[in-house]
Design goal:
Layout: H1 8-22, H2 27-56, H3 66-75
Length: 111
């Protein structure tokens, strides 16, 4: 479990600020309560994960991630039906230039 981009100087600075703000006599109790809170949150997350596994009947919860579900749905590996029609080409549709004197198309219903 890492601390991300927090280095030793930042940790010392946070401890000094905590001692100044909270006070040296109340800081141990505050740290103890924070540790208890994090352990309780971790326990709740683990319990929720195990309850979800039991209720869904899935061993790997990563397979329930929306990206994994979409990848499985759109992979087409299990489909026996070939895709209908030609596949569309990406990119803008080609446009032709107007001939001299030719008026551009106008849709009176669009305005």
């Amino acid at each position: 479990m890492g601390l991300g981009n927090v280095g030793p100087f930042e940790i010392i600075l946070l401890l000094v600020v905590a001692i100044v703000v909270v006070g040296p006599d109340r800081l141990p109790k505050l740290l103890q309560d924070a540790g208890r809170l994090f352990r309780q949150l971790r326990r709740m997350a683990n319990d929720a994960t195990s309850d979800l596994r039991e209720s869904m009947g899935v061993d790997d919860l990563a397979s329930l991630h929306p990206r994994a579900l979409a990848r499985e749905f759109f992979s087409g590996e299990d489909d026996d039906v070939p895709p209908a029609g030609p596949t569309p080409q990406p990119g803008p549709t080609p446009q032709r230039r107007l001939a001299p004197g030719e008026r551009p198309p106008y849709d009176s219903d669009a305005t």
